[in-house]
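Notes for week 9. Today we move from apo structures to complexes. The key idea is that a small molecule is not decoration. When we ask for a structure prediction with magnesium ion present, the ligand SMILES becomes part of the input, just like the chain. The input block below holds both the sequence and the ligand string. Read it once before you look at the output, and try to guess where the molecule might sit.
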Amino acid sequence: MTEKVLKAIKTERKRQDDKWGDQSGNHPFEWMSILGEEFGELCEAVNETCFHNPTHPEKGGLDKIYKEAIHVAAVATALAEAVLQTPCTD
Ligand SMILES: [Mg+2]
């Protein structure tokens, strides 16, 4: 199970690089902003799935929760990589 998820995170990490180009120079603040957006999408997916009165049920479902959790993990991975490459000293 863990290997399946880690593989999905790696695939998503590559998809994001292919979509947005090399973002390795991003400051940690930039990564935190992107991570915040993805975390918000994950929260929305959970809320629309688990609350009894969803307002946008099309944004919920276990598949959406899984997808957004992978997005969060991939962005957090990019953030961790950026910190290794460019410590925030400025
Ligand atoms: Mg997302």
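Residues 62-85 form the longest helix (24 residues).
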